[in-house]
Amino acid sequence: MEEAHKVHSQSPLYSDEKAQSPRKISSFRRHRYRTLGAVATTIAILGITLGVGLGVGLTNSGDAPSSTSTVTSDKRSSPPIATASQGLSCQAGSLSLLGGLNVVANTTPLWQPLPGTPWQIVLNSPIDASRSLTPALSVYDIDMYGNSALTIQQMHLQGIKVICYFSAGSWEIYRPDAGMFPPQDIGNDLHGWPGERWLNTESKAVRDIMANRIKLAAEKGCDAVDPDNVDGFGTDTGFPLTSGTALNYLSFLSLTAASYNMAIGLKNAGEIAANATCMVEFAIIESCIANGECDIYQNFIAAGKPVFQIEYPFGAPTRVSKQDLAKSCKIKGNEGYSEVIKGKELGGWVEYCDGTIFNTATYG
């Protein structure tokens, strides 16, 4: 990932996040934040069922940019009922599989935010939600390990839906479950990130650990998960990963999250965004303006799903000039996206394209 952040522990359960220089990985358009590789060719996936739909969710109020309503969608579940694909847009109550089929699911509500919903992301320190948070928005993305169940409960009391970040494709030496990974499933170093190495995401052991992480997110009360580093095939991981295995892994993560009634997002992954649009409830992307690739994610907007966009202009997080702010804001290709201006440490500071600045309260 491109951001450099560090979460300060409050107890042994909540481990430190990273505070290193941005990763530089050879991948899609040399994106400094990893992206998934080429659009997958048609592959068969058995036993994977996923679905989306519509309902009612939270709205937001306050002196921050106004929030768009959220909706709830049908929970992904099995057994699947295959029907003919109706195109790129996601059908209500169904999710497109890689072979060009849709899967119809049951109707247990699953959170589905709408395009244009404002948001905030804070990963380098635990959120202080003991008081009213600013900006007063309905969506926050926070570190799963670095924040307690009490914090998430306090955020819920403020009408906030909580997306919980964790790394799904890399081993991090400082995580509390680091010792559970089999040595043969831990691969090459992530360039620029000491103490972090790629994982074999095809391994059952790795998937079992990630299932436990998703379970922990559910136990803490997270409404959705933000799984990072699922695109290792775009670099030298030490394992024979492909775009197909990445989509398979994303399907596994998505289905697991849905089993706990949690939504899930696609992190960057521009080259498979079209295939993954109906597999997740939102996208989280970085530096798409800087890299000239914003239009890749327009399928999400067409499908009624938000694209949460982060840009890191010069001067953030202290002072961004009007010129740099203009360069990092609305241009052709990112219409309808939910954009924030952040420093790469991903602290409490945030600026929006109207020039409004907030500092979200954190511990440490």
Automatic annotation (TrEMBL):
Keyword Transmembrane helix: yes
Region Disordered: start-end pairs: 1-26, 62-85
Reactions catalysed according to its record: Hydrolysis of terminal, non-reducing alpha-D-galactose residues in alpha-D-galactosides, including galactose oligosaccharides, galactomannans and galactolipids
Top-level taxon of the source organism: Eukaryota
Membrane-spanning ranges: 33-58
InterPro entries cross-referenced by the UniProt entry: Aldolase_TIM, GH, GH114_TIM-barrel
Ranges of Polar residues composition bias in the record: 62-72
Record keywords: Hydrolase, Membrane, Transmembrane, Transmembrane helix
EC number: 3.2.1.22
GO MF annotation list: alpha-galactosidase activity
Enzyme class: hydrolase
Domain called Glycoside-hydrolase family GH114 TIM-barrel: residue spans: 119-348
Coiled coil: none
PANTHER family linked to this entry: ALPHA-1,4 POLYGALACTOSAMINIDASE, PUTATIVE (AFU_ORTHOLOGUE AFUA_3G07890)-RELATED, ALPHA-GALACTOSIDASE
Name of the protein described by the UniProt record: alpha-galactosidase
Lineage: Eukaryota, Fungi, Dikarya, Ascomycota, Pezizomycotina
